[in-house]
Amino acid sequence: MTTNSEFRTNFYVCIVGSGLVGLACGILLRRHGFKVTILQKDLTLGTLGAGIQLHPNALRVLKDLGVYDKVRAVSILPQAIILKEYKTGQVLHTQDLLQATEKYDAPVVTIHRARLLGILYAEAIARGVVIRHGVSIDVAGVDLAGGVLRLAGPSEEIIHADLVVGADGANSVIREAVTGGKPAVVPHGKVVNRILVDEAAIMARPRLRHLIERPNIVVWLGPGGQAVTYGLDGTFNIAFTWPWSADPKDAFFGPQKVDFEEFKKGLAAWEPDLRELMELGGDALRWMFFEHPGDGEETPWLDPSGRLCIVGDAAHQVLPYLAQGAALGFESASILAHLLGKTESEQQVRDCLDVYQRLRKERTGHVVRASLKTSRLWQLPDGPLKDERDREFLNEVPSAGYPNFLADPFFREWLWGFDAKAAAGEAWARYEQERV
Ligand SMILES: Cc1cc2nc3c(=O)[nH]c(=O)nc-3n(C[C@H](O)[C@H](O)[C@H](O)COP(=O)(O)OP(=O)(O)OC[C@H]3O[C@@H](n4cnc5c(N)ncnc54)[C@H](O)[C@@H]3O)c2cc1C
User: Fold this and answer.
1) Which residue stretches, if any, does this entry annotate as coiled coil (predicted)?
2) Residue of the nearest CA to atom 14 in ligand 1?
């Protein structure tokens, strides 16, 4: 008879994409004894973007991955999330993060993406994950029924996997294979302009040096846009969301260079401190934002044979206003890996993917909608609605419906208190009970 661990040792998982989520998934699957290879199209470990916030639900997974101490050693611990009115700089709301650290047994941190990716990459290699660079899959190379991948390019090498996990990001080819088409392009009508400033230059400006001396996540809420700023240990990160055409014809993918001088001219009405900060930046790159409807029952995240599934941005890309994209991806990777770690047969793998899909669609769908709503609330134009929002910020105790969801104690508990590994265990126990 095949034992549980023998089954896993002989079970071969091929993950497409070595982003944050693919690596996290690979590490946990190896821990459960599976054979794991990750295919990565780039030759090097490149990352786009600079900073990322990690909230307690993300850090709980990183603890489970065994990389928490390494992440903490190279990250910044902001004391608060501060929301400001864009013209006057008036503080509308301060959300203490140090209390949250105690409550959730994990902090909120900011970290350079490349450092985070490097830590996960090193851990994956140390655990015995095989990572192949410079190999890509296109949709024609995916055989749904057989779990067979034909690599793109002249070699046409064939890979036979017991399970293919698509962690290949927002433009996932595995998603396309599983759902039978590309998702509709729904522009959010915004771009994000990313500006990096040397922290030494900020320290030389008396009005600005508090940004470094008291690390916080500071957000200026403006009409149709917002500026999110935080430190990254030597570099200061500014992610400036700005209006853009919502016409799909004007959509672009990947970063574009911004006419920085022109962009700064559009900031005449914004608080002088923010404009002074922007003067310290040399240039900017922009990315376009797309909306994700949140998948319902009808959109599959796995194929009927149970040989392919999707995870991370490939499954549930979310606008970044609640800083939850990677966090949700880590949660999904954790749930998928811990569920798979319970399986003893191919039939159970198929069932486990069903459980995974059910569990994750509901939660990620809520966050997708809450993030979209946050952008509408935080980027209101001047007028009575904005005045009412600011009044609520200033005068009301955060509760359900408060315009900062992260400060609403019910939503925050649901979001930050989530323990992905425990949720996988509970879902598996329910599955076993139903089988009896
Ligand atoms: C402006 C902005 C700010 C954000 N801020 C935050 C934040 O503060 N906190 C947070 O939690 N999240 C944040 N996010 C979201 C977060 O960055 C993403 O959710 C996360 O990086 C997704 O990781 P992933 O591994 O699923 O996908 P990706 O990072 O896209 O990785 C996919 C990988 O697959 C590879 N790949 C793609 N296609 C193929 C193929 N055909 N063959 C082989 N390899 C392939 C790619 O090269 C890539 O390495 C932000 C996003 C944006 C845009």
Assistant:
1) none
2) 325
